[in-house]
Each structure stands twice: as structure tokens, then as C-alpha cells.
Amino acid sequence: MQSGIPKFELVWREERQKFYVQWREGGQLKRISTGADDPQAAKRFLADFLSGWLTPTVEQKDNITIKEIIDIYTTHKKKQNRDRYKNDSALSERFITRNIQNLDWGTISALTPIAQKWGDWYPKQITRAHCREFVRSRTEDDGVSATTAKKSFDILVAAMNHARKDGLLSIVPYIEKPSEPPPRDKWAKPYEVQDLLKVLEKYQHLHLFAMLALHTLSRKRAIMELQWEQVDLDARRINFNPPGRVQTKKRRVHVPINNSLLVALQKAKETAVTKHVIEFRGQPCYEVGRAFRNYARTVGLGWITPHVLRHTGATLMAQQGVSMWEIAGIMGDRTDTVEKHYLKHHPDYLKDATSALDKIYA
Fold this sequence. Notes:
The chain is mostly helical. 51% of the residues lie in helices and 9% in strands.
């Protein structure tokens, strides 16, 4: 835990052309940019900074640092990920450890910059100015996108909410996130889908993944975790939400199996050696992203990621006149969310309005 109040001072950094707040902790020099080149603005930043620093006291319930919150949350996520494999006795410890590391990497890499910059702080010390400086530092100094910086904030808020539910925090502070970039309208045309499936044919696990993504519009994790007990080839239905799994906001739904997908599933079932639908070299396969993109590049389609397949299916269905209600049903999304992204592709979109204008001006 942090103790004592350091001596803070404003210093001008010529190479940055900005004022910085500077102090020493445990003999180590630390500083944070005020984001200002005006002395008065820098003093206001320092006042806000000191206000946040002095708010907590050792008697308060919230006497827990950001680093401690992150450690608790990452430990929780690692246990959660390990629990996903605990009932599968066929998996080796080496396989489980490797896949847990892959699953944990996104959380750890997003929280590492937070821990480095704010690790010794209390949550209440974080102000909007600090959030803006973090985003500026990540985008300008580290060269990452605003979306990547926002992901760090998203996971930090999740970590603090986890601490609040455990009774370690009374209030999660407001975290000002960068503006959302416009949604990327990436989707493949039917001939591009055919080219992609053709190059994936000799890699059964990748081809089957692509078929499931294109014909069920399910998310990558739901497909990678799919087991044969969830697939009813006779009734031609897939239940992507296995028994015992609690539904989250990323809903997993029942999806009918169409003719094309039925052929692919029957072929895979004949050679299956594990209970997982997607398998590779006799082991369950939980990650296809890198291999998928590498082979997609060979036909000039490296921009098609596994998630783009989900958008592709929804977009092509909308272009065929399928209702937003049905697309929402198969995707497990709300109708208003689907309308936001796919209604513009529907052939009847604003058709009555433009037809009326045609008549008016005629």
C-alpha cells in the first residue's frame, strides 16, 4: 500500500514543450504530463491532481491501489479460463497452460500500460485530465490507436467493478474514454467468400470454422468452444449455449443447420477424435486467427478476419431482404443493434421515401 505524501512540483520539459508534474516515490523519479504549455493551465492540473491524491485515507474502504485491483482481476480471469478446461480429462496440462496464456494475453496486454502509469494510485485519484493524458501518451508516444487505448479503459473498469462486487471498492470512478471510431463496414462479397473457402479446403479445422461462422453468424469463441453434444445433426440444430453456461450480453442461441453446413459437419464428425467440433491434430483447437489470416492473404483477402465472417453473413442476408428481426435472432443481438449496422444494406431501406420523391419531382 502507498503511504506518505510525496513533494510535487511543476517542471517544464523543453523536449516536450509541456509542463509536467514531478515527484519522487521510494527514491524513484516519477512524472506525468499536464498536457499544457500554459503555466496557469498547468497549475490548475496540479491542483486537480493533488485533490485526487489527497482524497483517500488509510481508514477508508477504498484503500487499495490500481495495481492491486489489476492483480486481483487477472488472477480471477486466469482461474475463470482454467475452469473452462477442468472437466476435460483428455487435455494435457501443457495444452491447458498454453491455451490459458493465449486467453489471458489480451487482458494482460491491455492492463499493463495502466499498471505502469497508475499502478501506485488509488482509483479516486483518477481524473478526466489523467484519462486524456493517458490516451495522448498511448496514441502519440506509444503509437497505438485510440481504440487500443479505449480497450485498456474498458478492462480497467471491468477490474474495478470486480473489486466493487468483492467489497474492496465503494465507488468506481468515472473514466473518460476516447470517442468511438466509426464502425468498420467490412464484409466479403460472395465470390470472395468462395475464393476464401477454396483456399481453406485442405485445412479442415479452418474450413469448418469458416463454414460455421458464415452459416451461423456466431462469434469466434462460441465456435471454438462448440462440442458435438451441442450439435444435433438429425434435428439439424446447434445450441451454442451449452448446459450450465450462464447467458451473457453476448448471447449464444440455437441456430438451424442449413444444407451446406450439414455436409461440412457430417464430414467432420466422421473423422472426429475429440468431443470438440473444431480440432487440430487430435487436440481441441481454441485459436485460428493467425493461421486463418495467413492463408487468406494467399488469395489477397488478408483483410478478412474471423470476425469479418460474422459481418459478412449478416450483410449478405440483409442484401437478400431477410428481416432485421431474423438476422438479430441468428446473431443473438438486439434488433436495434442489427438495424444500426445492417439496415442500410436491405433492398427496401428508405425505398418508399425515395420513390415518393421520384413522384413529387416528376
